[in-house]
Amino acid sequence: MMRKSENYRLADLGEFGFIDQIARRVRPTPDIKIGIGDDAAAFRIPPGCLALTTTDMLLEGVHFDLSLCDGYSLGRKSLAVNFSDIAAMGAKPHSCLLSLAFPETTPMTLLSDFVAGLLEIGGEYGVALIGGDTCASRGGVVIGITLYGVQEPDKIVQRCTARPGDLIFVTGSPGDSALGLKLLRDGIREGRAVARHLDPTPRVREGLALAESELASAMIDISDGLLSDLGHITKKSSVGARVYLEKIPLSQEYRAYFGLEEKEGYALALGGGEDYELLFTAPAHRRSEVEALFGQFDTAVSEIGEITTVPGIRLLSSSGEVVHGFAAGFDHFSVRREHTS
Ligand code: ADP
Ligand code: MG
Asked: DSSP readout, 38-72?
């Protein structure tokens, strides 16, 4: 097995020994004709589908902090953030590539846990690891993952297709991941918000169901913050949006921590990143279909506003007044962009 002793390091195993150990743990899926071990991988995609592809880099010190996370959750999260992008296109994750640069002093336990976490979440969504690249790093850990997805061309959901009058929906409770990071930095290692930060659940089944039912007119995943990501939909679609502050779904943990007296309490829910929830629009006459669709999942869905012809995002209070300080400045939102867990 990979795990030997705490002192066993990547340098003791070597590049090819390491790749061999990954390869032995991979479970192939029927579409993969050539997997790890040749100069390139080869795979089939279902007839009538397009292949989609997305890639994300995670850098130690920028996106994660090894003193605040464990190898296993890091492996899960590295693939989860890519699943989230494929989910936001309404596509089905298919296969992935893993590029790694680790210092040669890296303990094998960390690497073994990382690979275990990554392969586990891959298995949960039927995705095989089909190749990658491994290098020694003179700096910190660098993780690069490329994920392929598949979907019929007409069912792929883009950012640029929201229409005035469409309703805006969000899954889950945004802000929990940013709260979790705040708690981690304060030395708290437990609780739902911390778990949401370290091991986010990509909304793969939900994104796929929205695409299959052709309910979503536009969709994005929340990686940079709700308002910022909604801004991508409105800009690409050449529309605007009205968002109701009191409709933003906040978790119990979030309410307990911030209270809701002050509008500042909403800062992380509107501007915090890394929630990996889906933000999508749907025609107003299909509202009940959206609610019925989410009845089959354990995931909450909330209507938070509507698409308008007037450009920009207007945030409204319960009395209908425009709330300033969020929407007006969402491009240069004052909550600093931070990822490091
Ligand atoms: P080459 O030198 O031809 O690029 P490599 O020695 O880099 O080949 O890789 C050999 C095989 O191992 C390839 O199939 C490659 O995709 C796979 N591989 C290398 N690193 C990884 C990794 N970190 N995860 C999964 N597969 C890997
Ligand atoms: Mg080669």
From this structure: BSS-EE---TTPEEEEEEEEEEBTTTB-TTTS-HH
